[in-house]
Design brief:
Length: 463
């Protein structure tokens, strides 16, 4: 379907007048001004994340491969910046489509902000992920479900236990942005309701996720906050018990930007690390181009390769063109399924509905990644280390926070930043969750250094 086509759509269940809200989540203080000086509220959301400490810490968190020495592959910071760039393009394409649809808005200028909203959601999408890549999530879950933290189950409700034993980085992102940490202002980063909703890929609680591969969007501690966000934006509720909502439409674009980037960039990084040969990498990337339908693009590639002889630059050139193709393809999927998305009945990632050569090539990349990239020795070693390091830190701090009166506990808890301090009145769930907050916010190097000190392998330097 052409992006320029004007479609006649049904009256949607969700309405853009509600879905695009510049009002901020801020307990006890609501502001609805759209403009502030020379920046919109959504642009302020973007800037607020760019300058935040959790965002800066992403530079020292593993994406897939161990943090590099002299070969610069992606970390979570560079990945998030690239996803944000792709997300802005996707958002702008959908904004153009909605303008052609002549969507009626009380504030028409809000349509111009969709690219910024999606880009901000992309910046935030990995903020809640712990150190050591996806194995960090597994390590936290394992500590509670099967490891030394299993004894805590009897101290918690089933819902609270489900949050901890199936730790989810997506839910942790929502918590990080909305939770009132000790000594910090109420409402966390006080983002706009629309920005917050655009981040939540799985808008249901962990009890619902049990049947869906343990993916969910908010912990019990933030359940009512997400309910407030959803009600403010009139997002379709699918179930009360367990609580489940339809996705905000812009979530599909944030997810698509992530899907586009991580798959393609992992191929490029694999070439730099010599996991894939140059010829293999070129063949994989060129498979995104149809020999009949993309003749002009293939001619441009051939001409470029005659003048550009640097292998890394050739691969970068191909990668840029593929990302552009996938952006257009995912935007077309959004438009094709627009009615179902607005009704809250579309339940899939946009990338899964891309068709033709791009679909075949993307699926081949996914297969290759699992067979050749994600199970290399260097990736496996970081996963093993992550399990040991995070498991040890979690044990020491959960034991200490439950028995803070001992000499050792007082000392080890004194290392925790002020924002993670707990009181005697806090619930058991809150105390344990605070430890998880501390651990999940660590960088790879901070976690490793703390582990060494706890184990007595390394002593602090006297300066």
């Amino acid at each position: 379907m052409s992006l320029t086509a004007i479609r006649h759509v049904k009256q949607p269940a969700m309405n853009w007048n509600k879905l695009l809200s510049a009002q901020r989540y801020h307990p006890g203080n609501r502001t609805s001004l759209f403009h502030s000086h020379d920046r919109s509220q959504f642009q302020r959301d973007y800037d607020r994340l760019i300058f935040s400490s959790p965002f800066r810490r992403l530079q020292n968190k593993t994406q897939v491969f161990p943090l590099p020495g002299n070969i610069f592959v992606h970390n979570r910071l560079t990945h998030s910046l690239e996803v944000a760039s792709v997300g802005r393009s996707l958002g702008n394409k959908v904004s153009q489509f909605l303008r052609r649809q002549q969507v009626e808005l009380e504030n028409p200028e809000l349509l111009e902000e969709i690219g910024t909203i999606v880009s901000t959601g992309c910046l935030a999408h990995d903020l809640g992920n712990p150190p050591f890549g996806h194995s960090g999530e597994e390590a936290i879950s394992y500590f509670f479900s099967e490891g030394e933290g299993n004894y805590l189950k009897k101290l918690l409700s089933d819902e609270e236990w489900n949050d901890l034993s199936h730790f989810e980085g997506n839910a942790n992102t929502f918590r990080l942005l909305t939770h009132s940490f000790n000594g910090r202002r109420p409402g966390g980063y006080t983002m706009t309701y629309t920005t917050l909703a655009s981040i939540v890929k799985y808008p249901y609680e962990s009890t619902k996720a049990n049947a869906k591969g343990f993916k969910y969007g908010f912990f019990q501690s933030e359940k009512e906050i997400y309910r407030e966000v959803a009600e403010k934006l009139d997002i379709v509720m699918l179930s009360e018990k367990p609580l489940q909502y339809a996705r905000h439409p812009l979530v599909y674009l944030v997810e698509a930007a992530d899907d586009i980037c991580y798959q393609i960039m992992d191929i490029e990084d694999s070439h730099k690390l010599r996991i894939l040969s140059y010829d293999e990498t070129i063949a994989i990337l060129e498979s995104f181009y149809d020999k009949n339908g993309d003749k002009e693009d293939l001619k441009i590639i051939a001409r470029t390769f005659k003048t550009v002889t640097d292998k890394n630059e050739r691969i970068a050139f191909l990668r840029a063109g593929i990302i552009n193709k996938l952006i257009t393809a995912c935007a077309e999927v959004f438009i094709r399924h627009y009615d179902a998305i607005m009704a809250g009945t579309f339940n899939s990632a946009l990338i899964k509905h891309v068709e033709g050569t791009c679909k075949t090539a993307y699926d081949a990349c996914t297969k290759l990644a699992y067979e050749r990239i994600y199970h290399t020795n260097m990736v496996t070693q970081i996963q093993i280390a992550g399990f040991k390091i995070l498991g040890t830190i979690l044990k020491e701090y959960t034991d200490a926070i439950l028995k803070p009166e001992t000499y050792y506990a007082r000392n080890i808890l004194s290392v925790m930043p002020e924002q993670y301090k707990v009181s005697k009145e806090d619930s058991m769930y809150t105390k344990i969750q605070t430890v998880v907050d501390y651990v999940s916010g660590m960088t790879d190097s901070y976690a490793l250094n703390l582990y060494r000190k706890i184990k007595g392998i390394e002593l602090p330097e006297i300066r």
